[in-house]
Batch of 3 targets.
Target 1
Amino acid sequence: MMWNSARAWGYVAHDPFDGLVLPKRGLVQTVTFSLDEINRILDSASEPFRTFYAILAETGIRGGEICALRVTVPATIRTYPRFPSPSQSSRII
């Protein structure tokens, strides 16, 4: 462990983790939807939530990740898809 090395080399004199008691973690309950339930959710949702839920269902990404996506409208209509370069900082749909 890095802290043990720092103490052995004389950079620190104590171990801040000494006596630390971590809480016990119980089983995590996850909620999953059947295909029928997903279709009912999508049918009852209005835009823009329908698109939001559809992307979540199809990709499995987290809510925060979908909120970080940016939608752009090209200035001109092209006949081929535009893909972002790896150097761009945000994702484009």
Target 2
Amino acid sequence: MVEVEMKIRGLMMDPTANTPIVILKDVISDRMLPIWVGPYEANAIALEIEKSAPQRPMTHDLLRNLIAQIGATVDRIVVTDLVENTFFAVIEMTLDGKRVVLDARPSDAIALALRVDCPIFVNEEVINSSRNTIATSDIADDEDDVDEEDDDADADDDPFGEDDEAEWPDDFDDDVSSDYKM
């Protein structure tokens, strides 16, 4: 299983669904992966991105504190699967020299990763199967390929593999990534 290291590029709001989206960006390419998250998880991620400390520990702070208190370390998080538009993730830790893997929602795993400063990985198959993966060069290549293929290939008309109207910016601007405010 090939995994790709990614960083958080930003948070934004889906204008259609009015839902927060975490944008992950490949550390060695321009490829980006949007993951829709809940408002509470987006808030937890935004607080940590902004380095804004709440008066009392939030759930992800509590989890970080618990992990530290039992003597474990978080090694990394991995977005492992995408099934019926639902992403899955794991938190990989070390406790007493043993590897411990916990099932988690990607939003919770990302919020924890920010708090413990561990790397975020995504399974390559997840990136490839996500219809919303953003890759400017891939879109241009796919558009060239469509021109060369039969007109019967309806599935190839859209670079994301479907005919919805999802439009992503060619260049992901820092101003756009900061649209999600507390």
Target 3
Amino acid sequence: MVKGFDYPVGLQYPWSDTPLPKFEECLQRLEKIVQELEKGEVPLEKSLTLFEEGMQLSNSCRKELEQAEGKVEILLKKNGKLQPEPFDTLS
């Protein structure tokens, strides 16, 4: 587990019993990982560990986005056919 980052109960990293965080928490953690790696002050071993964690978080986010997209498609389904509708951010 990463110090200072609480993981909610749910999906788990394949290499440990540590659960994966939720989407928003994944994004926050990914941002922190990127910032830390971009500084270039992290030792190689820690860089590899952070990179591996970042890849797992990225995969988790991608899967959650794909699931959300599928739910949206189901909600937009009309008369047995998918009716694409633009996303209006002002609504």
